[in-house]
From TrEMBL:
This is Dehydrogenase E1 component domain-containing protein. InterPro entries: DH_E1 (IPR001017), PDH_E1_Alpha_Subunit (IPR050642), THDP-binding (IPR029061). Transmembrane segments: none annotated. Keywords: Oxidoreductase, Thiamine pyrophosphate. Its cofactor is thiamine diphosphate.
Amino acid sequence: MSDPGTTYRTREEVQNMRSKKDPIAGLKAHLLEFNIATEEEIKAFDKSARKYVDEQVKLADASPPPEAKMSILFEDVYVPGSEIPVLRGRIRDDSWSFEKGGFAYK
C-alpha cells in the first residue's frame, strides 16, 4: 500500500469510512437486499476473483520486464486504426509518429 491512510486522516476517520462507505460492501449489501445473489454466490465469486488475481500476479512475476525503450510509453494506448499521425513530445523538437507496430521517435 502506498499510503496507509493515516498520514492526513485519523484512524477513526479511516475506519468510519471503511465501515460505512466501502463500495464493495455496499454492492454486496445491494445484491443481498434485492435478492440478486446469495451469500454463497458472492463468496464463490470472491474466491474466483481472488484466484484469478493470484494467477495473474504469478504470470506477471514470471514475465520478463518490458524492453527499456521510449516508444513503450505509447503502446496499447490507441485502438488499432485510431492512432494519431504525430504525437508531440515534451519539447518542441521532440515528436513521435505512428508506424506499423508502434510509435517511432522523429
